[in-house]
Amino acid sequence: MTLTARLGSSSRPVKIAIIGAGPSGFYAAGALLRQKETHVSIDLFDRLPTPYGLVRYGVAPDHQKIKSVTRIYERTMKDRRVRYFGNVDLGSDITHAELKSHYDQIIYAVGAQSDKKLGIPGEDLQGSFSATEFVAWYNGHPDFRHFEFDLSVESVAVIGVGNVAMDVTRILAKSVAELETTDITDYALEELRESNVKRIHIFARRGPVQAKFTNPEIKELGELEIADVIVNPADLVLDDASQAEMEGDRTARRNMETLHDLAERGATGKPKQIIFHFLRSPTEITGSGGAVSAMTTEKNALHATETGYVSCRGIGTYAEYDVGLVFRSIGYRGVPIPGVPFFDRWGIIPNEKGRVTAEHGGAVVPGEYTVGWAKRGPTGVIGTNKPDAGETVKLMLEDVKNNAVASSPDGSAAANHRGLHTGGELRPGDITTLLQKRGVAFVSFADWQILEQIENERGALRGQPRAKITDVDEMLRLIQSAKKEAAALPS
Ligand code: NAP
């Protein structure tokens, strides 16, 4: 008679795969490790060799303090119950069915890897980009390092007034001296050194009260060395609905104060200008010789909807701005993963508080969960992911208790574990066997530490926190040669 250990006991920990090693994946791992009732073993996967997702490739290089959160994630990776598998892509290196057969529970922490489109003519012209492409480029994301942005132009349009728009604007408006001590990539710094950008036009479709940026971010624009911020005082005169909205919203009140200060200060003769345009929606991007040369906008008026939401509509007054680059910064969007449900309208994995559902409002898919932007859409700051992950983890533990775990196509995940613990034949066995058999060059935590040390040492030579390596092949080569060198040393 074979005795099967209880799922979640010390002899039969719950096997959990987390797909995506960004903030939401780490907060999910952290919540699973912190609780004491259920034993877990966690494999954390990322499609890139490097962990930390948006902290590495999204957070602006001049916001190093925010990046220090990785110290907490590092502690998670050092936990003996956690293994890191970088450079493993779900969909090409490993299939959804394979994951299901190896793990009791899967958490998708894949974020929102794409962006929203404006849907206006000229959006695909050369020189029209999403802000996320620019951000990923200056932050050294391997998929974006080859992008080219023509910074010889004098005027640039940034569409949207969220924090990503503020990041992009700041990077375009800062001096090289302000950037060279950050971890911005060397190639981006070189391009920015030669930049001819003098005017950055920021377009908000609604009014200043409805702006999505948070107060430190707008304040920061007012503190730049070589850029003035231009705000038209007339744009700060509020309609009744906006006045009411502002009174109930502390961030909006602070933002309005800052915008009033900036409007009062006006131009002080700095070489660059950041010019805010409220109540303007882009309607067309036009080009000459295939590249962006201008953008047309329509003036909007605000109106309150039945729910109290302050919306906008065009009033038929148009204005054209000469710009050589357009960055739409109107929000991120998820991309589907083969085999995993996707709710296209919202660009997320359909879910009920983190339990994946077969479709929006549909039945729960046992054993599959989601956290972060893949779960709730691209909103909130890094810290928002902590309670969000906590909510999902609570349900996961409940499901273990209620035995509502997945069963794999070729027998239950538990069957594989019985093999592990009784010495019986392992069917798929450990995931490393499959990855090795397939020749997937996965990166472990120890490998990442090698890479991180190289980046830190190279950065220190240049007075930077790190000098990012941006090419995946180079990352893998450096890890291999460091390991060979270490092996050759006399023990
Ligand atoms: P966001 O905060 O949602 O802002 C998107 C902006 O795009 C809004 O101003 C929105 O205006 C506008 N927009 C959307 N569709 C548009 C359209 N069709 N035409 C014109 N404008 C349009 O998104 P995000 O800036 O990408 O930021 C994503 C999340 O990351 C946010 O929660 C943000 O706070 C966070 N983040 C934080 C930091 C930080 O803490 N420093 C840095 C970067 C990002 P409406 O309001 O009118 O829709």
Quick structural gist:
The chain is α/β, with parallel strands linked by helices. It has 18 helices and 20 strands.
Descriptive notes:
The structure is a single chain. The protein is of the alpha/beta class and 491 residues long. The chain is 35% helix and 21% strand. It contains 18 helices and 20 strands. The chain has helices at residues 23-34, 53-57, 64-67, 70-78, 96-102, 131-138, 163-173, 176-179, 186-193, 215-221, 240-247, 250-265, 373-376, 385-401, 413-422, 431-437, 445-461, 472-488, and strands at 14-19, 40-45, 82-85, 105-108, 114-115, 128-130, 155-159, 199-203, 227-230, 272-277, 280-288, 291-304, 310-322, 325-328, 332-333, 351-352, 355-357, 364-370, 407-408, 411-412. The strands form five sheets. Strands 3-2-1-4-18-17-16 form a seven-stranded mixed β-sheet, sandwiched between helices. A six-stranded parallel β-sheet has the order 6-14-7-8-10-9. Helix 17 packs across helix 18. The longest helix is centred in the last third of the chain and has 17 residues, at 385-401. The chain is globular and about 75 Å long. Residues 409-428 have low confidence and may be disordered. NADP nicotinamide-adenine-dinucleotide phosphate binds next to helix 7.
